[in-house]
Amino acid sequence: MTDRGTELRIVSWNIHGAVRPDLDDLSTTLASFDADAIGLQEVRRHQARRLSINLGYHCVWVFKHNGYSRFLPRFAEGLAILSRWPMTHDGDTELGGPRSRSDFRRRVAAWATIEHPDGDFCFVDTHLASGNDAEERVRQASDVHRLLRDGLIQDCHHDDHEHDDRREPPTLVVGDLNDHREPDVVNALAGDLLRDAWVIAPGRSRSGLTNPASAPHQRLDHVLIPREWSVSRVEVPDPDDAWSRRSDHLPVIVTVQMRSK
Fold first, then answer.
1. Does residue 27 carry a pLDDT above 50?
2. Alpha-carbon torsion 69, 75, 78, 84, what sign?
3. Which of 111, 121, 188, 225 has the fewest beta carbons closer than 10 A?
């Protein structure tokens, strides 16, 4: 790894899988980002699998809820992590207390170790509570922070890679936090461990607003990076009819420099 760090492209996108987006179009769009790692929210298992195959990426999918029936597993909604590099699914957890697996209010976080040639890092994907319950979002964000602080997420997979020096790998968090104008949510999640890429980026496109895709007026989607990393640019596409057909959210594309502690 050079002194300037290794450049990574990270994406977070809520793809609203329940409306059955065109997966070939999504694949082409995701490929255009040239991302190293992608966190998707509101994605069904078969959609995640199809996207990963089309991209030639590795895939982890985690169940969030199924409001239809356990006899219709195809309609289950969850989170997906897609990676250009091999990865290991290290864990997932329910946030904010137990709920029925059929309840759309059930929220989860999932994490994986991504085995980048210049050093492993942990990638966390989550989707916090929607609606007016800001206190619930803060509780869920605090759950994720507690996992980070206590080392449960950072206790990621290690093997005999030559570059593994046994230090905890850096961890980043992406997701739909549903937190427009609620700074307490990001503060609770990040603490003194992470930084909001949008806030610290020297280069930005547009305003960072991601929802609704047709005329965005809310910044709900985030990439939070380790404090030792830096960010050079955060991009959010210009809204138009094509983006509205893909999802009700716009993606966030972040270029970071990965550095050791």
1. yes
2. positive
3. 188
Structural domains of the chain in order of their starting residue, each with its CATH number: 6-258 (3.60.10.10)
Neighbouring residues of 188: CB distance < 8 A, sequence distance ≥ 6: 138, 141, 142, 145
- Residue 142 — left, alpha, or beta (φ > 0 → left; ψ -120 to 50 → alpha)? alpha
